């Protein structure tokens, strides 16, 4: 089934479900960053407030109430950001939160037990095994044990008390794609 098209074309953006809506932010189109944020209500896309730090190859995650935009880059892996911003769909506004300790693009993120877990990513000459957690209640970042293998461009999901990092690339520029699946347990 075809859905209505987005109001703006974009690649390398981020999306997450907040309540009963899909929020999409960031990305690039034709070599330029896309600053708009769009919300899908099941029938139509609505353009809302621009993301404060436009970027692509960012991660997006939801805690059920808000959408969080994590990291990303300004069109090149040597232009990574540590920016973290929260979108409130009810108010239609963005809030800047404390930056990640490690700037990176191509990372994945998941929400688990009141924390946003940022996983892996890419820098100009290497991929990262770095895992960091943002505690939503305290507003602080802390390091977690690294992934056994660094990767970027992976899929990241939470099931129960485990964050999974699936696939990705072992070298910058998507070289050496992998079939690796890694898990970080939160028991």
TrEMBL record:
Transmembrane segments: none annotated. It comes from the Bacteria. InterPro entries: Kelch-typ_b-propeller, Kelch_1. Keywords: Kelch repeat, Repeat. SMART domains: Kelch. PANTHER family: KELCH REPEAT SUPERFAMILY PROTEIN (PTHR46344:SF27), OS02G0202900 PROTEIN (PTHR46344). This is Kelch motif-containing protein. It comes from Rhodococcus koreensis.
């Amino acid at each position: 089934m075809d859905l209505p098209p987005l109001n703006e074309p974009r690649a390398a953006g981020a999306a997450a479900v907040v309540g009963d809506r899909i929020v999409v932010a960031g990305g690039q189109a034709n070599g330029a960053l896309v600053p708009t944020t769009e919300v899908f209500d099941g029938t139509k896309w609505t353009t809302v407030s621009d993301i404060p730090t436009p970027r692509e190859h960012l991660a997006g995650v939801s805690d059920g109430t808000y959408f969080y935009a994590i990291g990303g880059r300004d069109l090149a892996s040597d232009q990574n950001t540590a920016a973290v911003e929260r979108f409130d769909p009810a108010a239609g506004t963005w809030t800047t939160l404390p930056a990640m300790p490690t700037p990176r693009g191509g990372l994945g993120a998941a929400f688990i037990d009141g924390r946003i877990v940022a996983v892996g990513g890419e820098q100009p000459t290497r991929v990262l095994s770095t895992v960091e957690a943002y505690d939503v209640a305290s507003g602080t970042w802390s390091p977690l044990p690294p992934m056994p293998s660094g990767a970027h461009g992976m899929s990241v999901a939470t099931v129960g008390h485990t964050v999974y990092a699936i696939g990705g690339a072992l070298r910058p520029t998507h070289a050496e794609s992998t079939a690796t699946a890694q898990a970080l347990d939160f028991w």
